[in-house]
Design brief:
Layout: H1 2-11, H2 17-26, H3 30-43, H4 65-73
Length: 78
């Protein structure tokens, strides 16, 4: 399963949490998507994290208050 592979790569620092968030968002699991986005934010490991503001895979997350909060904490405007 792709999620298991990504989790292994994440543990080895070969992937960022945003990759897992992409998959979870695509599956409609917003809670897990936000968990992985938060991990990247907290660890400052998601170099692409600011691009989540425009990333199409996160379209369904944009209406969620957690998304607005994350974007604000990154110093971006929602």
């Amino acid at each position: 399963m792709i999620l298991k592979e990504l989790e292994v790569k994440y543990a080895r620092r070969e992937a960022v949490g945003q990759y897992l968030a992409d998959v979870y968002a695509g599956l409609g699991d917003k809670d897990q998507a936000f968990i992985w986005l938060e991990k990247d934010f907290e660890q400052r490991s998601g170099i692409r994290l600011p691009f989540s503001k425009w990333w199409f895979t996160f379209d369904d997350l944009r209406g969620d208050p957690r998304y607005t909060d994350l974007i604000r904490r990154m110093g971006l405007k929602a």
